[in-house]
Amino acid sequence: MASIHDVAKEAGVSVATVSKVINNYPDVSDKTRKKVSQTIKDLKYHPNVAARGLVKGRSWTVGVFVTTSFTNPFVSELLEGIKTALQNSGYDLVLLSTRFDDPGYSFVEHCLSRNVDGVVGFGVARNDPHLEELLDSDIATMFVDADIRGRRAGYITTENKAGIMQAVEHLVELGHSRISFISGELDKAVGVLRHEGFMEGMKKHKLPVNPDHVRISDYSMEGGTRAMTDLLALKERPTAVVCTSDMMAFGAINVIHRSGLSVPEDISVIGFDNTYYSEIFSPALTTVNQNIPSIGSHAIETLIAMIENSDFAPSVVTEPSNLVVRSTTAKPRK
Length: 334
Hints:
- The chain is α/β, with parallel strands linked by helices.
- It has three domains: about 5-55, 434 Repressor (Amino-terminal Domain); about 60-160 and about 290-320, Rossmann fold (3-Layer(aba) Sandwich); about 160-290, Rossmann fold, CATH 3.40.50.
- It has 13 helices and twelve strands.
- Helix 5 crosses helix 13 and helix 8 packs parallel to helix 9.
- The protein is elongated.
C-alpha cells in the first residue's frame, strides 16, 4: 500500500506539498497540484482521514439525531437526501442516539465525545431543555422543521402554513364546509404552523371551526387512528379531514373503512408529506407535497458551509409546498 512518502518521491515534491494538495491549500501551483493528484491516483494512495483531521482540526463526520421513529417514511426519505448530499462531500454520517429522557444527559458532551464537526437535528421541541446548551456551543447545527436559531444554528423547513391552506382551499372548492383537522403536537414549530394554516384557511372562507373537530395527536398511523375514531364518534361527523402527516391520514382512512364508510365518497382525507407510500396506498392519497430528500440535501449543504466557514451566517431555508390531488378527495354526498 502506497504511503504519502511514496507519492512525494514519485511526484518529485516534498511530503508537505502532497499534504497541501490533499487538504486543498491554495498556495500550490496548478501544475504541481495536477501532478500530485495524478500520482495519488496512479499509486492508489488513500489519505489517512484521521491524520487529515489533525491537520484541518476536523473529523470529517457529521452527526444526525432523530427523535422520530425510523419506521416513519419521512425519516427514511430525509436520510436518503442527507446521504445523497454527503456522497461527494468528503464527510461521513454518524447516527447519534439521544437520551433526552435522561435529566443528566448532555447533547453537547455527546457530540464532543463522538468528535462530529456538525449536526442535523429532526423532531426537536422548542422547549427541549437541552437546546440552550447546544445553541450556546460552537457546534454547527441545522434543524429540520424546527424554527430554532442560534449563533451557530440555522434551520430548514417547508411552507407548512401555506400547504395546509392549500388543502383547505381544495376541499372548499369541492363543496365541503364541515372540515375536521388532525393536528400534530403543538410543542413543535411544524405543528404550530400547520395548525395556524388550518385556522386561517377556514377563516378565509368564513367557515366555523368547531373545537370538537380539531384533534391533537402525534404524526404516526396510530395517532391518526385515535383521532379519527374520536371524530367518527361525534354527533355530526365531518365530510372531510385534513391530517398533518401521511401516516396520520393512513390511520384515519383505515378507521373510516372499518366503520363501514368509504373514502372519498363519505369522507375526504388529505395528508401532508407526499411520501412514497402516498402514491401506492389504496386509494392513492391526496396530500401536501414537500420535497423531503431535497430538505435533507439542503440541510447538509448548509451545514457543511457553516463547518467550513466560521463566519457563515446560519441560514433559514424554506422549501416550497404544493397540493398533489389523487383519489381520497371528492365532492361531498348530497
